[in-house]
Design a protein that fits this description.
RNaseH-like_sf, RNA-mediated gene silencing, eleven-stranded mixed sheet, 20 helices, alpha+beta, paz domain, PAZ_dom_sf, Protein argonaute-1
Length: 875
């Protein structure tokens, strides 16, 4: 989309559309974020503690220098060692100064350095392998002073807020300078990962299996808050590869108790699995005495060490083919114990660097960026889950043990860090009342984010007259009488809920394998006219699920509900009731609605709620695309939603086809309600902090373009808010008596928009759900655009109420329903991309780089069948 701005008229031109509705001043073209419209007052006050610690910053200038290290592309760890050596050896420049360094280009000092304007070039050496030094050339050049005086003025409200712009170039941002000072020493002592620091597990052991283990550490970041800077500290954990011999690593990956279980060469399936896990890891060799040379693994050989050959150049200039086993015997007098095992191939493939497994160790400190297995994820959650009081105590202990005020670099820059958690006053928002149906028209009032549906019926229940059961569990796993009992219990619960299933299933058979799904579904569609639902019983985690959803959602447009066989064998009213919630929503029913007279004033005119999410493939996977999902409400309650989904190039944050997606949803809204929405409320998930303005700029224009493409003067007011869950702010009750549940969390509905919020921008924290396990994480909302002029109370209450409209459970959830649905749609699209011709539990994913599957093929793979387009197939 081409975007032009006319400075004479203040009009933006989007492609072929002239957007007179976006008449902007030159300053507004930069899309400055809306100022906070005031503070919320609604709700019962609650005293809270937050894991933020005040940082007192001196009113002074610091001095920024650009560092250029050659050779470049070294890891930050090496860069830090180079700079530390430079500071130590060039006292004529640095004297007693203690500069701080970000590991890349920026170095700050508290006093200016005696360096010429053109800069200075320095030679630095680090100890290398075999007693040889590794030479580096460092260029040091003064860039500019960075004013903390101005930062203090902004925080105290005495000058403009531009200095707080987190999207300014990092190096000249005074907040970045503060961050670098506080991170300098931890970066030298621990293993940094993002904004967290980790240390190897010496006093504890938390294995995850598969050669992985849990490392514990802490998250640290600085943020501007009202009148002050805050240091956010949180406990953190992530998966690392265990430092161990590669032989043992292979045994863990392949689930072998010891290497003696593998007396022959690795089967090809084992080799592929092992290669997938070790490729890209660093190993160090043990056969060279004290010289522990390190290599990066690029492959695992197909042939064992006793057969794997490489061209060896002899002293006479001739080249002969030599096996790896023979070479190690002759060169190092090392008789391989496991010559039948393959070798690691290191460095570049064409260089023939082969290493026997038994001479290699996994290097410590390598974070696992690959996706954890389900079992590893479960073990990680168990190892890291802490009740809120326990987390609070651990964070306080972390800060006390860190001794920030004794840090020589903190002292150099005259900082002071308080070691008590900040106290804030929050408010507990009132929960909305929920209207049910049936004769009684019962109303439920949530308590701590939970309500009971017993004795109530759906607001609008669907009558099911024709349905089928397909059981992919074997008859031995799930007997006929068990199926009959499940059917009877489901019909009873559904009738009580106001969704009567009028008859026994018209089809109930046992089937096996993914290849059975499509022909069976086609048979059902062709044979049973008016078939409403297929209940699919699964034996566990299986590729059948992905195939059921692919065929049902994209190929034939048939509603499916999957049930695990364990829930069929042991039926419970709660499980069956949850099934009914999903089924009723899928088939067009309405489970409950917000009581109309309690809704905010935005409902007085037609309004559409949009939720959007972009999900990226796992780190390290460059083949899979990113998936974009946008959902839109289709009624006035809002209860019914439609979805639209796209694939786009991996790791793109901006939604590329948003104009078309929003246009589709606006048309569908009009078809459903016969109204054009006068307001659009857009909840956007999946945006990183540094991308706010870019994403807003592109996506706000795309929404406007969608409106103008429907009608020249169609100008609904747009409110665009970002939803953030990936942050480390945690809230704790000051008063023990206010704690809720076994985990001692804050009450559902707790909101904070003072003290720890942004000094000027329209943001707030809201914990809308009841914490079940571990410590509740409040969602952070930032309003990036607001044509509708929301007050703080109105937008916070609206957001909280939308968290109660999620159809899959009788609990409030952690983010508004439209944002949650967008996440579900994107997650479902991952299954639509799964290739059924694969023997793994999850299947393999289609990608734009393999087997001729181009972007058009990927787009078709996620295209929902027209019969399912207007349904909530994703619930």
């Amino acid at each position: 989309m081409e975007v032009c701005y006319c400075s004479n008229t203040g009009v933006l031109i989007l492609g072929s559309y002239v957007c007179s509705c976006i008449r902007l001043s030159p300053a507004q073209v930069l899309f400055s974020l809306p100022q906070r419209p005031g503070y919320g007052t609604l709700g019962k006050p609650i005293q809270l503690l937050v894991n933020c610690f005040q940082v007192d910053i001196p009113k002074m200038d610091v001095y920024l220098y650009e560092v250029d290290i050659k050779p470049d592309r070294c890891p930050r760890r090496i860069n830090r060692e180079v700079v530390a050596s430079m500071v130590q050896h060039f006292k004529v420049i640095f004297g007693d100064r203690l500069p701080v360094y970000d590991g890349k280009k920026s170095l700050y000092t508290a006093q200016p350095l005696p360096v010429a304007a053109s800069g200075v070039d320095l030679d630095v050496a680090l100890p290398g392998e075999g007693g040889k030094d590794r030479p580096f050339k460092v260029s040091l050049r003064f860039v500019s002073p960075v004013s903390w005086h101005t930062l203090n003025e902004v925080l105290s409200g005495r000058c403009g807020s531009e200095v707080l712009d987190m999207e300014k170039p990092y190096s000249t941002n005074p907040i970045h300078a503060v961050d670098v000072v506080l991170r300098h020493l931890p970066s030298m002592k621990f293993t940094p990962v993002g904004r967290s620091f980790f240390s190897s597990p010496e006093e504890y052991d938390s294995p995850l299996g598969g050669g992985r283990e849990v490392w514990f550490g802490f998250h640290q970041s600085v943020r501007p808050a009202m009148w002050k800077m805050m240091l956010n500290i949180d406990v953190s954990a992530t998966a690392f590869y265990k430092a161990q011999p590669v032989i043992q690593f292979m045994c863990e990956v392949l689930d072998l108790h010891n290497i003696d279980e593998q007396p022959r060469s690795l089967p090809d399936s084992h080799r592929v699995k092992f290669t997938k896990e070790i490729k890209g890891l660093k190993v160090e060799v043990t056969h060279c005495g004290n010289i522990r040379r390190r290599y990066k693994v690029c492959n695992v050989t197909r042939r064992p060490a006793m057969l794997q050959t490489f061209p060896q150049q002899m002293e006479n200039g001739l080249t002969i083919e030599r096996t790896v086993a023979d070479y190690f015997r002759e060169k190092y007098n090392l008789h391989l114990k496991y010559p039948h095992l393959p070798c690691l191939q290191a460095g570049q493939e064409q260089k023939h660097t082969y290493l026997p497994l038994e001479v290699c160790n996994i290097v410590s400190g390598q974070r696992c960026i690959k996706k954890l297995t389900d079992n590893q994820t479960s073990m990680m959650i168990k190892a890291t889950a802490r009740s809120a009081p326990d987390r609070q105590d651990e964070i306080s202990r972390l800060v006390r043990n860190a001794h920030y005020n004794a840090d020589p670099f903190v002292q150099e820059f005259q900082f002071s860090v308080r070691d008590e958690m900040a106290q804030v006053v929050g408010r507990i928002l009132p929960a909305p009342m929920l209207q049910y149906g049936g004769r009684s028209r019962s109303v439920a009032t949530p308590s701590q984010g939970v309500w009971d549906m017993r004795g109530k019926q759906f607001h609008t229940g669907v009558e099911i007259t024709m349905w089928a059961i397909a059981c992919f569990a074997t008859q031995r796993q799930c007997r006929v009488e068990v199926l009959k009992n499940f059917t009877d219990q489901l019909r009873k619960i559904s009738k009580d809920a106001g969704m009567p299933i009028q008859s026994q299933p018209c089809f109930c058979k046992y089937v096996q394998g993914t290849d059975s799904v499509e022909p069976m579904f086609r048979h059902l569609k062709n044979t049973y006219t008016g078939l409403q639902l297929i209940v699919v019983i699964l034996p566990g985690k299986t590729p059948v699920y992905a195939e059921v959803k692919r065929v049902g959602d994209t190929l034939l447009g048939m509603a499916t509900q999957c049930v695990q066989v364990k829930n069929v064998l042991k039926t419970s009213p709660q499980t069956l009731s949850n099934l009914c919630l999903k089924i009723n929503a899928k088939l067009g029913g309405i489970n409950n609605i917000l009581v109309p007279h309690q809704r905010p004033s935005v409902f007085q005119q037609p309004v559409i709620f949009l939720g959007a999410d972009v999900t990226h493939p796992p780190a390290g996977d460059g083949k899979k695309p990113s998936i974009v999902a946008v959902v839109g409400s289709m009624d006035a309650h809002p209860s019914r939603y439609c979805a639209t989904v796209r694939v786009q190039r991996a790791r793109q944050d901006v939604i590329q086809d948003l104009a078309c997606m929003v246009r589709e949803l606006l048309i569908q809204f009009y078809k459903s309600t016969r109204y054009k929405p006068t307001r659009i409320i857009f909840y956007r998930d999946g945006v990183s902090e540094g991308q706010f303005r870019q994403v807003l700029y592109c996506e706000l224009l795309a929404i406007r373009e969608a409106c103008l493409s429907l009608e020249v003067d169609y100008q609904p007011g747009i409110t665009y808010a970002v939803v953030q869950k990936r942050h480390h702010t945690r809230l704790f009750c000051s008063d023990r008596t206010e704690r809720v549940g076994r985990s001692g969390n804050i009450p559902a509905g707790t909101t904070v928009d003072t003290d720890i919020s942004h000094p000027y921008e329209f943001d707030f924290f809201l914990c809308s759900h009841a914490g079940i396990q571990g410590t509740s994480r409040p969602s952070h909302y930032l309003v990036l655009w607001d044509d509708n002029g929301f007050s703080a109370d109105d937008f916070q209450l609206l957001t909280y109420q939308l968290c109660h409209t999620y159809v899959r459970c009788t609990r409030s959830v952690s983010i508004p329903a439209p944002a949650y649905y967008a996440h579900l749609v994107a997650f479902r699209a991952r299954y639509h991309l799964v290739d059924k011709d694969h023997d793994s539990a999850e299947g393999s994913h289609l990608s734009g780089q393999s087997n001729g599957r181009d972007p058009q093929t990927l787009a078709r793979a996620v295209q929902i069948h027209h019969d399912a387009l207007s349904t909530m197939y994703f619930t």
